[in-house]
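I had to read the description of the data format several times before I understood it. In essence, backbone conformation is discretised, so a fold becomes a row of integers matching the chain in length. I therefore recommend that a typical entry be quoted early in the introduction. For illustration, here is how one protein appears when written out as sequence plus structure tokens.

***
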Amino acid sequence: MIALDERQTVRLVSALAEVDALLTEATRYIDAAALRSPFAERLGDVTPIQRQMIAQDVERLRAIMRSILERQRVVMPPPVRSAAAACRAAIGRAVIAVEELGPRYLRREGALSDEAAADTNRVVSQLLDGLMRMEDHLAAGEAADLPMRPQSRKMDPIQFSTKHLDC
């Protein structure tokens, strides 16, 4: 490959970064876990084999892009932000959203019966327990590869949210 000047190199890197972002977006559309979401916006019309083949194609395209960058002697800086920290932050935001489903907040929208308040508390508790389990997996670090514990530890919602707000 012929060496590019600085402006051309910037354009090349920009274009490849956009292609990579679009590949990431495309794989997110067919992610099996995302398609099972109760809020999925897309049909699950991709077979597991198609999903696997697309994942392999994406890896091949990324290998080609790495090769192009190497031939142009473009050294990309290594990632410096933690995926685990970003995941913890997202879980923290989810905790806040779940807590805002509690009776205290729902009563701001109108009257809430004692029965509805109790049911809402159960829903909030279930969701917070699931989010706590996710946080436990992240906190375990490399130990997360060990067999999963049968039950996550219980923590009341106020302690749970305070833990996340301190991050």
